[in-house]
Specification:
Blueprint: H1 8-19, E1 24-26, E2 31-33, E3 38-40, H2 45-67, H3 78-88, H4 95-118, E4 123-131, E5 137-145, H5 158-167, H6 177-191, H7 193-206, H8 210-219
Antiparallel strand pairs: 1-2, 2-3, 4-5
Helix pairs in contact: 2-4
Protein name: DUF659 domain-containing protein
GO molecular function: double-stranded DNA binding
Organism: Trichinella spiralis (Trichina worm)
Length: 231
């Protein structure tokens, strides 16, 4: 029995299923590589495989920029783009192509990694709301696992340390050296209220007042400015 040839459109659909819709797409006529940003010859499997390997490079590139806190629009810089293309021998697509085709995949990969990390473990969650530079409310969520044989991270906030001392009186409470010195300095301020008011008034006179600073230098050029107190 003669072998029935598949239609070109069916072959294109099969290639998209094989390599993933995040890498390839088709309109039943041509095969488009999202990683390269161009059409590829679907009749030669080597071209399709090459495009697939390049997409992994772009996935890693996108994740590296995100982890390092580097905006993707930095790739529009000609010097940076030329450097990457020269030494990686890879085509660097535009920022919009990376954002459309790889941000969601990297996000899903990170979420899957977090799920695997916290699966079947007791977890803790911290949620904090903030306002971004464009005045949008953003909720930052931090999650971790509770380990019975590992100490938690040290807290650097005096308020948290004071609260934990009363909530967990049986725990060994170690005060940070900087916080201890700060509490001593606060006690010294209470012992010398006149000196405290003097330093406070000097701070009010010269802090964020360049005209007063210039006047002081003009009247007493040989006298240095008083040191700025850290209060």
């Amino acid at each position: 029995m003669a072998k029935v040839k598949s239609k070109p459109s069916e072959k294109l659909i099969d290639l998209v299923k094989e390599y993933g819709s995040d890498i390839l797409s088709t309109d039943n006529t041509v095969l488009f590589c999202k990683a390269c940003g161009k059409t590829i010859n679907h009749k030669k499997n080597t071209f399709v495989a090459d495009s697939s390997s390049k997409s992994q490079f772009l996935t890693d590139l996108c994740m590296a920029f995100i982890d390092a806190g580097i905006p993707l629009w930095k790739l529009e810089n000609k010097s940076l783009r030329g450097f990457l293309e020269k030494y990686t021998k890879q085509h660097i697509p535009s920022e919009s192509s990376l954002r459309k085709n790889y941000i969601d995949n990297n996000f899903n990969n990170v979420m899957d990694r977090i799920r695997r990390k916290v699966a079947y473990n007791k977890t803790w969650v911290s949620i904090d709301e903030m306002i971004d530079p464009v005045r949008r409310f953003v909720a930052n969520v931090v999650i971790g696992t509770l380990e019975a044989d590992q100490l938690s991270k040290e807290s650097e906030k005096a308020y948290d340390m004071k609260m934990s001392f009363f909530l967990f009186p049986n725990m060994l409470h170690l005060t940070c050296l900087a916080h201890g010195l700060h509490r001593i300095a606060e006690h010294v301020r209470c012992l010398y209220p006149d000196v405290d008011r003097l330093i406070s008034n000097v701070k009010k006179l010269f802090l964020k007042a360049p005209s007063r600073v210039q006047l002081f230098k003009a009247m007493a050029p040989e006298i240095p400015l008083p040191p700025q107190p850290y209060l």
